[in-house]
Amino acid sequence: MLYRLYYWPGIQGRGEYVRLALEEAAADYVDIALLDAKHGGGVPALERWLQGADVARPPFAPPFLQAGRQLIGQTANILLFLGPRLGLVPRGAAGRLWVHQLQLTMADFVVEIHDTHHPLGGSLYYEQQKSAAKRRSQDFIAHRLPKYLNYFEQVIDRNRARGPWMVGRSLTYADLSMAQLIAGLQYAFPRASRARMRRCPRLRRLHDAVFERPRIQRYLSSGRRLAFNQSGIFRHYPQLDA
Amino acid sequence: MLYRLYYWPGIQGRGEYVRLALEEAAADYVDIALLDAKHGGGVPALERWLQGADVARPPFAPPFLQAGRQLIGQTANILLFLGPRLGLVPRGAAGRLWVHQLQLTMADFVVEIHDTHHPLGGSLYYEQQKSAAKRRSQDFIAHRLPKYLNYFEQVIDRNRARGPWMVGRSLTYADLSMAQLIAGLQYAFPRASRARMRRCPRLRRLHDAVFERPRIQRYLSSGRRLAFNQSGIFRHYPQLDA
Questions:
Q1: DSSP code at position B226
Q2: In terms of CATH architecture, what is A93-213?
Q3: Mind listing the pLDDT tens digit for each residue in A192-228?
């Protein structure tokens, strides 16, 4: 099956969690963000689905995925759909639900990371909310960052199937997302995350194991993966770091 | 099957989305928040699962649901699990994914509503972040509230099966959550939400249709449903309203 991934051009953002799953599975997909508007890509391609009056089940926001006649929105929901198709979930229903639960907890974490630089809302620039961002970041670094990282470190530790992954013996989409999240934190908060990751050997190992996988390596060197930048969810403002 | 719902005592919070599904289906469940600590309830009952070193798949935060040997966290994930068991989803996989997508969009909405009174983080009291809360609320009322409500109004409008619901001909857990969300907004932002809801006749009808259902009525008058209050997600601070 050919998948079409719709996401904002120019940033990794939430689209990247879906891309990593598609790349790891060597799935047949078109990344609409990499096409220009003349060739059916760019923002007009997104708007056609977000604003088209004929879309029966419109997504609220990107990313969304077109798979045959289905249009699926919400990052975690897209991965819930793709997981069994791409071989990135365990066999049993309980294991799949647990993978999804971890993904949803990561989604909460991602919102909190985003809000460190935009605590007063998305309609204001960062420059208009710098002092609020500083306060929110202090709270994040002191309380939320350690709470989330300790939690996920514990999840790996309690996985009875010893190995680098969070669930069972095999890689799942939650592992791909976790590695991406760690990479993003290291970009945005190099000092705070280095200090904290020192106490999380299992997360470091998971991160490395994901980014060493041959297909992920190939993706990184393909030119298709955008670099982190100051328009995405993970932004590096030195004054917000520890 | 007997379900055990674990959530913080004293507030509706995210537990309420699960309660409404269990109540509508007349499911056999114990609400641990309504038991005192002596009888296996209260905060110690939560902590046993959140902090117990023997919990193989620990939830990050309440609510979580115990169903036989499964422990399931994340509100939307609990509803994903309960939906088919309680008869609160359509038959087909695509319809179920769409219901889940709507639930996840509501979860995003709920985070934004919460952050109107806590934009700088949960470790500070509201009183310590009043001016930031005022600015965040202005952004919320001007941009986010209309965007979300217009979206969900449109979802009902585009449901070809005419009726009060968002998906197909029958009530789903997403409808129950939507009604709860509207009720919460009317409590927290009575002025802003009244002005906005005037343009959303389908959402008003959905809200009323949910709260008129006999089992929901029985729940409301049972004494089991807590009132909205100033410790929950929806808080009424007149200075934050329009």
A1: P
A2: Up-down Bundle (1.20)
A3: 999 999 999 999 999 999 999 999 999 999 999 999 9
Distance from the A15 Cα atom to the nearest Cα atom in chain B, whole angstroms = 16
* Angstrom distance (rounded) from CA B165 to CA B117: 30
Across the interface, whether the CB atoms of B60 and A124 are under 8 A apart is answered no
Separation CA A65–CA A74 (nearest Å): 9
pTM beyond 0.90, yes or no: yes
Rg for chain A, CA atoms, rounded:
18
Q: Distance between CA A107 and CA A180 in Å, rounded? A: 12
User: What pLDDT score was predicted for residue A151?
Assistant: 98
Nearest CA in chain B to A73: B101
Whether the per-residue pLDDT at B242 is higher than 90: the answer is: no
Fold annotation for A3-86? Glutaredoxin (3.40.30)
Name the residue facing A136 among B58, B104, B121 (closest C-beta): B121
SS3 per residue for B144-175? HHHHHHHHHHHHHHHCCCCCCCCCCCCCCHHH
Say which DSSP state B120 is in. T
Q: Which tens digits make up the pLDDT trace of A34-48?
A: 999 899 898 999 999
CA distance A234 to A116: 9
First-residue to last-residue Cα distance in chain A: 46
Question: How far apart are the C-alpha atoms of B78 and B73, rounded to whole Å?
Answer: 6
pLDDT value, residue A242: 87
* Of A20, A144, A23, A152, nearest in space to A99 by CA: A152
Give residue limits of the domains in chain B. 3-86, 93-212
Q: Collect all residues with Cβ–Cβ distance below 8 Å to B123 and sequence separation of at least 6.
A: A139, A142, A143
Sign of CA dihedral A180, A10, A41, A72: positive
Considering the domain B93-212 in this protein, what is its CATH number? Answer: 1.20.1050.10
